[in-house]
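Title: Request for sanity check on S8 family serine peptidase prediction

Description:
We are preparing a figure and want to confirm that the structure record we downloaded matches what your pipeline produces today. Could someone re-run it with the sequence below and paste the raw structure tokens into this thread? We only need the token string, no images.
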Amino acid sequence: MFSIKNKLDPDLRMAIDKKYYKSYRVLIYCKHLPEVIEKKIKSYKGNLIHFIPFINCICAILSPNAIDRILEFPQVSYITFDSLALLCGKGVLASNGVVFQERYKLTGKNICVGIVDSGVYPHPDLLNPKNKIKGFIDLVNNLKYPYDDNGHGTFMSGIICGTGHLSKGVYKGVAENGSIYSIKAFNSIGKGYVSNILFSIQTLIENSTEYNIKVIYLPFELASINYFVISLFSKMFDIAIKNNVTIVVPSGHNGNSEGSISGIATLENCITVGGVDTTNNSIKPYKYSSSGPFAKLEKPDLSASAVDICSLNSNTKYISEKNGMKLYPQALESPYTHYSGTSCAAAYVSGICALLYENNPELSFKDLISLLKVSCNLKDMSKWIQGAGTIDLNKLLP
């Protein structure tokens, strides 16, 4: 009985004991044979949300009685809440922005970046001269065609690979000839379930060969610290690396206090990007950017501009289909907008990674992160905020 008790998240046990809800959305981690548990969930009248075989994990909505019965199976290792994650960002701002105008030989050609975000709006800068949206999956509203009812995913897509079509190249992305595979796991207010995110990462890895996905960009932070959930992400990141896919994440928005960094940003098998403010003559820390260290790890790994970045605007009221029929958006009144957040910095580095993979598709994760760090210049601020510093493209790119 003691071992069964230890297999349940203490907070979930308290909620069940106090009879807070009639059912719970949970993550079930299995040592082996998750298919057996999948069948049992259905027999207990549970609602199966996701089966994530890469990490032997199942998401389901179950009654308290069903949870107790599932716990009795020896292959079940742990059950916890399917917690929420939040998109990184502190709001849209009107200012001067950052423009990527320098020309290099590398443009991200034939490299696809997987994005788990709020979706993507069919913006002219992503459709001209050719469609950059190679794939779109909607885990929130189950629509077939691309849309973005929050705007965050579209903005970040523009930083990564926008063509600058409507600005005649002024506001183009880092890898202007790259492409994206967008999975909508976050709703209109920027919240998403951990299970949807894990399922999205698995889907992108499964499609990495077909679409040449070399980078997966994850612009969120966990709403609460749950080391079991973090361990699931670590397992998934290891699988990505084995498939020659690099994970890029923002440092988060816990402020500059030393040791404020948390969640997936602390994992050693991803590239963690902090934020700096480059809007004035002197570069300074972005005041919301989370700071290391974490245990013996030096996180973040590096940093990039995070304040008043200019990229693609969205019509968040646009719905891409009605009664199964595709709908087309009207022209945007303002095609570009400004935004601040460490997710902008991570999107920039994701685009840089696409350029490096174009130059050498066989780069390992260790090679990639070493190249990025050696090309960085340290700024006059704590290393726990900036990591190895900001990338000097003249050092990095041919």
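Thanks, this matches our download. Confidence is low (pLDDT under 50) at residues 91-102.
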